[in-house]
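Protein: Outer membrane lipoprotein Blc
Species: Teichococcus aerophilus
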Amino acid sequence: MSRLRLLAMLLGLFGLGACGAVNPTMPLAPNVDLQRYSGRWYVIANIPYFAERGKVGSYFDISVEGDRFRDVYWGRSDFASEPSSFTMTGYVVPDTGNAYWRESPLWPIYLSYLIVYVDQEYRYALVGYPGHGYGWVLSRTAEMDEATYQGLLQRLAQAGYDISQFRRVPQRQEDIGKPGFQ
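Structure follows.
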């Protein structure tokens, strides 16, 4: 999919209302250390939407410099294919404990990136979006045990999410077709 086509779909999905300031509609992580948050995050589960639906082995690479960041998504249509990517850049909203980001696929469009939770060791994170229509369960490793996954889903439920909408993202060939996976 071309970048221009992806951008057009993003604009249609999030609408021009995403251009203005948006207040978070859920509690955020109290204080995110941006340097510790930087790096690779595997997508363990998400609420599937067009850009990530059906992708396998997906992850985000996040780099932060000051209050600016770069968020690169990588995903494959199958495990035999090369990964494709799209990049968002943005800034951290001041006075939010570094948990509220505004990211853009193309100026002047900005979308909200809400860090709902990150554990003390920065192994797991939950990312949301105003209105609860999009959400992600992230991990520093490609695999997550079921007890940890269920505990993170409960945190999302407490933040107002309908956790039945989340689907696990296959990170290994043997995950494909398992219950609860895309």
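Remarks: The longest strand covers residues 56-65.
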